[in-house]
Amino acid sequence: MDDHHDLPHPRGLHGLDHRIVVALRACGTDPRVAGAARALSWAGEHAALWLAAGLAGAVVDRPRRAAWLRGTALTAGAHAVSMGVKRVVRRPRPAHVEPLVGTVGRHSFPSSHATSAAAAAVAFGALGARAVPPLAAAVCVSRLVAGVHYPSDVAAGAALGALTARLGVRWMTGGPA
């Protein structure tokens, strides 16, 4: 599907959400961009990328194993919270663009990929994992390029994940929040 010219265009913030999805989904017509969006979407499914990263951190960084495991738990918890919110809000996914990837569910708000990515960025970033925040941002953008979320879904998911992890950083590291 394309942004049909004969369909009414939503106005306001809802319209902006629609237009941004159309613009970013158009980036996915480049096979390299589409491939990257698919790979990032796949890796972020059920927070798998972040859970694996946290467990790898626990194996490699033995002195801070407990902190890595707690950060992994924070990330998983944030993901679970987003799934609960998604079941309550029940916002449908964008229907005005052709998605690049399949989705596990049909609800869009908030983006659970963005929630777990932001939680991992905050939690693992507190442990010095500098590669995580840019990778997390790429996962968030991939959901827009894939055409399966509105920008407000991704923003809300990222805010939820960052807040959840930020609230748990003191517990995770044993230091001040």
What does this structure look like?
- By secondary structure, this protein is mainly alpha-helical.
- The protein has seven helices and no strands.
- Helix 4 packs antiparallel against helix 5 (112-125) and helix 5 (112-125) runs antiparallel to helix 6.
- The longest helix has 25 residues, at 65-89.
- Residues 1-7 have low confidence and may be disordered.
Throw out a few tags for this protein.
mainly alpha, 67% helix, disordered N terminus, globular, 177 residues
The N- and C-terminal alpha carbons lie at a distance of 46 Å
Q: Rg, please?
A: 17 Å
The proportion of strand residues reads: under 5%
Q: Describe the largest sheet.
A: none
Low-confidence stretches: 1-7
Short description:
The chain has helices at 12-27, 31-44, 48-60, 65-89, 112-125, 132-145, 151-173. The protein has 177 residues and is mainly α.
Task: Summarize the topology.
Elements (H helix, E strand, L loop, with lengths): L11 H16 L3 H14 L3 H13 L4 H25 L22 H14 L6 H14 L5 H23 L4
Helix pairs in contact: 2-6, 3-4, 4-5, 4-7, 5-6, 5-7
